[in-house]
Write a structure and sequence with these properties.
This protein is 39% helix and 21% strand. It is of the alpha+beta class. Strand 2 (111-122) and strand 3 (128-138) form a beta hairpin.
């Protein structure tokens, strides 16, 4: 029995379908954007197959004999899984669930969380960016309190995308402000960029350090100094 012919939609790559939804909704899909809401159930597995196929084309163009070389025989699949399920997972997975609690005790003292590990990638060369983040929060009586582990989950979700460090810290700050509504927020990030140590100028000891200050941290120099002095190794 002859199988029914494929419809036009069935022959369309899943990446094209997702892109069309984003364009129709006029949503941005830059490297550091999350697009989870535009991926339908089952499509991530199809996207994995598509990325594997295209990654195999890259290996072929690099003149690597993946049929004869046992070390690279399954590399295309491994790389596709790494990108979609691990290092760029923050683009394709929904925001982690956060349990929020009212500030019942009306806490209003500086709280610092960190160092939290950063695992990201530079969107210019897709080279690793590895580092640490410290988060300072000055709550008020209306602030939503979230568990310490949830800060780590938010960092992992935001940083798990191809990023530029300066933009990543701002993106994380916006998210934490939205979720907790504190009087002030301070974030410091220090990271090594493999696009400088592995390639290019090849400076293995070079690091980038930047910060974002919001609310009272912008207005109160003493509070800023207190936060920075309490970061181990950064005073």
């Amino acid at each position: 029995m002859t199988p029914p012919p494929m419809t036009e939609d069935e022959g369309t790559p899943v990446s094209v379908k997702i892109r069309e939804r984003l364009l129709a909704a006029r949503k941005r899909f830059h490297a550091n954007d999350n697009i989870a809401e535009f991926i339908e159930p089952g499509e991530l597995e199809k996207l994995l197959d598509e990325v594997e196929l295209k990654m195999q084309g890259v290996l072929d163009s690099l003149v690597i004999d993946t049929d004869g070389d046992h070390n690279t025989r399954d590399t295309a699949r491994r790389v596709a899984k790494m990108y979609l399920n691990e290092v760029f997972k923050g683009r394709y997975a929904s925001q982690p669930a956060l349990t929020e609690f009212p500030n019942a005790e009306h806490l209003n003292e500086l709280m610092i969380v960190g160092p939290l590990t950063v695992r990201s990638a530079c969107s210019h060369h897709l080279c690793p960016v590895i580092g640490k983040i410290w988060i300072g929060i000055l709550p008020n009586e209306h602030t939503n309190v979230i568990g310490l582990s949830k800060y780590a989950r938010l960092v992992d979700w935001v940083m798990g995308r191809p990023q530029i460090q300066e933009e990543a810290v701002v993106q994380l700050a916006d998210l934490i402000i939205e979720k907790t509504q504190p009087d002030g927020l301070a974030i410091v990030m220090e990271a090594s960029h493999f696009c400088m140590s592995w390639r290019g100028v090849r400076e293995p000891d070079s690091k980038m350090l930047n910060s974002v200050m919001r609310g009272v941290f912008l207005k109160d120099a003493n509070l800023r100094r207190e936060f920075l002095s309490l970061i181990p190794g950064r005073s």
